[in-house]
Every structure is written in C-alpha cells, then in structure tokens.
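Morning F.,

Quick status update on the modeling queue. The single chain you submitted on Monday has been processed. Sequence for confirmation:
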Amino acid sequence: MMMRHRATAPSTPRLSELDALRGIAAFLVLIQHARVMGLDPRPFDNPLLERGVHMLMHFSPIRVLEFGRASVLFFFVLSGYVLTRALMRSGSPGLLAFAAQRSIRLMVPVAASVLLSAGLYAAVADPALLNGALRDRTIDIWQVAPGAHDILRESALLLTASDPAKLNPILWSLVHEWRLTLLLPLVLLFQGRIWWLLALGCAGMALGAMGSGSENRVLLGEHFHSTVVSSLYFSLAIAVGAALAMAGPLPVLKRGQRLAGGVAAFALFGLASDVAVYIAAVLLIVLAQQPTGFGRLLRRAPLVWLGHVSYSLYLVHAPVLVASMVVLHGTLPLPASLAVGMVAALVVAEIMRRLVEVPSRDLARWAERRLRRPRARRAAPPAAAGWERTWAGEGGLFLDPDRLH
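Structure tokens below.
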C-alpha cells in the first residue's frame, strides 16, 4: 500500500503553507544578495576552512545562499501549480481577461519598484561612492544616473542582455514569469494528457538552450527576439507546476514516504541542475500540504506574513539594500549597514504590499470581470482517483498573496 487516502476536506480560505514557502524563498534571495554585497566573511585565512566553506556553498543545499537561482525556479514552479489549480476550479476567463489580469497584477508593482529605486537614487545616491568603494557591491544597480527612458523600459520589462536593468536587476526573472503565464489557460487543453504537457515543456527548455540558455546564469538575450527564446528555457518550470496541479488532488503520504521525500528535496537543492530544482520544488509543494508538523510549522503567523509580503520583498530589496549601504557608509561597518538594509527591506515590503499590491490586485480582478468571456465554462474538477484533497483557492507567486490558496 503506497498511500492512505483522506476524505475530502472542506474549503478553507487559502493554503497558508504555500504562502510560507514562497516567503522563505524570497527571504533567501534577500540573504543571497546581501551576502554578495558584503555580508560574507570570506575569504578566510585558513585554507582548509575556506575550502570546506566553498564545498558547502557550491555542492550542498546551502548553495541557495550562494546562488539565488533555485529560489527563482521554485517561484516559477509554484506559480504554474497554483495558477493552474485556480483555472481548474473556476474555469478559464478567456485568454484576453486572464492576460489583462495577469499583466496588471505583475506590472503595477514592478513599475512601483522601479519608481522607488529611481526615487532612492535621486535622494541618496553618491556617484563617487557608487563608482568607487561600493562599485563591486551593488549587483550592477545605480551604475549610471537613470533617465525617463530607463524607468519606462524597466517598468514595461523590456530588458535585454545588451540593455539590462539599471534600477532593479531582479526584474530579469519577471520578464520570463510574465511571458510564460500570459497564455496559461491553454494548459487546460492538456487535462488527462499531462505527459504531453511535460514533453512540450522539455521541448521549450531545449529550444531555449539552443538559444544560449543555460543553468546558473541570468538569461536575457542580446535582442528582444532572443529574450523570447530565453523565456522558453523556463517553460518546463511552469509545465511541471501545471502538471502537478492536473495530476489530481494530493495524496497523504506515510511517514517513511515523507521522510524520503524530504531527504530527496534537500539533496536535490544542492545540485547545480535546474531540472533537479524543479523536482525538489514539486516535493516541497507536496510535503508542505501533508497533515504533519512541517505543514503546521509553515502555517505559523510570522512565516505566513513573510509569504504575504514576498512579492513586494522580492521587488524592493535590491534598491533598499544599496540605499542602506550608501546612507550608512562611514557610519556603520558594511555588514551592519546591510543588516539594517535587510530589516528596512522587510518594512518597505509591507508598505508596498498595502499601498500597491492590494490595489493592483483589486484592479486586476476588476479588469478580469470586465473582460471575462461570457458564459465561460467551468473546467471539470479533477477526478479523485484515490487522491482526495479539496483545493480551496487561487493565486500564484507573482499574482496575489491574499489569493494563494
């Protein structure tokens, strides 16, 4: 007997454990960027210690603190999962309505983060400092004075490798996230044929690799058309999440199965492989929804709050960290200024959530209602087929913290 089955649960407001996972992933990106900027004691005087730390940071699950890519890939898989479940629950609103809702929900906070960065630059930037003592510590932000063209281009996610983000470097991932989910309602055509969906995702990844896509690199093509090919590289991440959603309600695993899944996820996050991270993400999504101590831990209020602010935190942390370094330079040691910046980023993320995310969510819902296809058919709920778990909501990593169900 591989698994026990659980009676269908009543609907609940949202799956807070997935909020928490998303929040943890965003917080890991914050730590990783703070480490790159100077919150890192390396190199050590002891060669043996230096080598040991290098091995841990590159060849163990701790590598998520060395490379933020795993967190971004987890975001993609989670978005594919929760958005597809939402579509299966309520039916497709139509491609136009979905694309409009998705674009508003993503782009309004993106534009706000770009304006925030430009405002911070105008308020605190010291070009001599940024191009001097802090030049290699700003992850290529504020290297030149931004102009109106830069603000408009980054707000519209019109980024390429030859003309990258100058105000908010993390926007490269939003370029791909936005494009890959605009037509997500089409995945409903693959209900009952999820292996075809995964095959198409693999084919997209292969095409992206042919167009210079590769692992452990920020992927943006030199020109607009090549950035589209780069987006295809990440199509397998969305497909994996969507396939998990369409596979049916999640099973209740036995203790040994949960332990094996946890060990496997932990180990897979230590591999320099995007596909390994996709598998680990699926395992985490399944394990988080088990009726165990892990799920209860994730539902604790601080972690759920972190999930609520995760999108805003992801968007604002880079300019806030750099601003903290500039303002506190000469007053506090660099690690201390970055620690202050991390706290400030959490505060700014909460403000951003209230002032920008919530209104953008409401505007996105309004646009979807206005454009929704008349008499849209609801997709049939997935057959229980032995896996019985009621899904109670909708949302996505970059969609809506208050609707991540």
